[in-house]
Amino acid sequence: MLDWLIIGGGIQGTTLANYLIHRYGAPAERVRILDPHPHLLAQWTRRTHNIGMQHLRSPWVHHLDIEPMSLDQFRQANPSATYPPYIPPFNRPAYRLFQDHCQHIVEQRGLQALHHQGEARGMVSTKGGYVVETDQGALRARRVILALGRTHLRYPSWWRQTAQVVHIFDPSFMLDVATLPDQVTVLGAGITAGQVALTLLGANKRVTLLSRGAIRVHDLDSSPCWVGVECSKQFKREKSYLKRRTMIQQARHVGSMSADIAKRVHTLIAEGRLQHLQGEVVDVESYADGVQLALQDGSSHASSFLIVATGFESQRPGGEWLEALIDWFGLTVAPCGYPIVNAQLEWAKGLHVAGALAELEIGPPSANIVGARLIAERLRSLV
């Protein structure tokens, strides 16, 4: 029987495995990461590739490793790689540096060897732990961590996917700018939409950025206060989960761009190289050679291809599989549907949550890179 089975091999699951083994001393042979993709961090890598990320939104001290300076030490140890410099604010690292560091940690710490490729199909309790049924057989573990990423894409109300309309995070879509027509419209106002527009412009496409309103600027997706003590104390003092959910919603800067992305977007708009339209799309018609977007004000916009960059819904990850688990084990959820857990993020004895599932305990940064580190600290006493 394993000591720890982590379901989910993204940023959260990979970071937690690294902490459990290399900081807290869990035996590597008794830790596994269950994930259906061919390698760890596959979803993260595909999504960030699709948007053409150049720099992270988070600081250089937020990464997969244990020591805060690990990423910078890796950069200094590889001067021949000539990584782009950190950018303000918060010394944000280049995407290529972050990715290379991720791969370095996965290889150096032997994390890929922990990967059990498969998909969870069910889970039952057993003496001393759980049996997780997968499409590749059963796994037995004393403790299970649900490190499930967000998968519910945010679609507009008019959504109809066609050959000319795609969501940037659709699991079946891999951005290949060479195959796109010369004229592309990007729908969205947040950092994802901005990055996609910049990527397409870099490939000499004619790009229109279509947003409901003006571009809003926030360097982080929530205040850095939430990583520190003060906001966390206020959050913990609040006993109402309805009010905690409201605090999370109010803290997040959904649909905003970091200042560097917004500045580049505004500059390109001023130079006439990027068209920016503001309006509410109410309907889309697809044709063999493109799409026609009807706007709420009665105007229309024609495009050869439409990329929807509206991110993810805030609903609970896990879908039907997790819903069945909640019913089977009688797990407690808040009015918003998210887990109610203890300080060790335990939903039931030996069943823990991470990522977005832990946000009613951790707060707004729960699903972010730094959230994995905050969650790992909660597990320290259990190893």
Tell me about this structure:
Helix 1 runs parallel beside helix 11 and helix 5 crosses helix 8 (259-270). The chain has 2 domains: 2-152 and 313-382, 3-Layer(bba) Sandwich (FAD/NAD(P)-binding domain), CATH 3.50.50; 165-218 and 253-308, FAD/NAD(P)-binding domain (3-Layer(bba) Sandwich). The mean pLDDT is 96. It has helices at residues 11-22, 42-51, 70-77, 95-108, 191-202, 230-237, 241-251, 259-270, 319-329, 359-362, 369-378, and strands at residues 2-7, 31-35, 115-117, 120-126, 129-134, 137-146, 165-167, 183-187, 206-211, 274-278, 281-287, 290-295, 300-303, 306-308, 346-348, 351-353. The strands form 3 sheets. Strands 1, 2, 3, 4, 5, 6, 15 and 16 form an 8-stranded mixed beta sheet that branches. It is built from 11 helices and 16 strands. With 383 residues, it is of the alpha/beta class. The protein is globular and about 65 Å long.
**Kindly state the mean pLDDT as a whole number?**
96
The CATH topology of the largest domain corresponds to FAD/NAD(P)-binding domain
In angstroms, what is the radius of gyration? 22 Å
Low-confidence stretches: none
Category from helices, strands and their pairing? alpha/beta
What is the C-level CATH assignment of the largest domain?
Alpha Beta
What is the total tally of β strands? 16
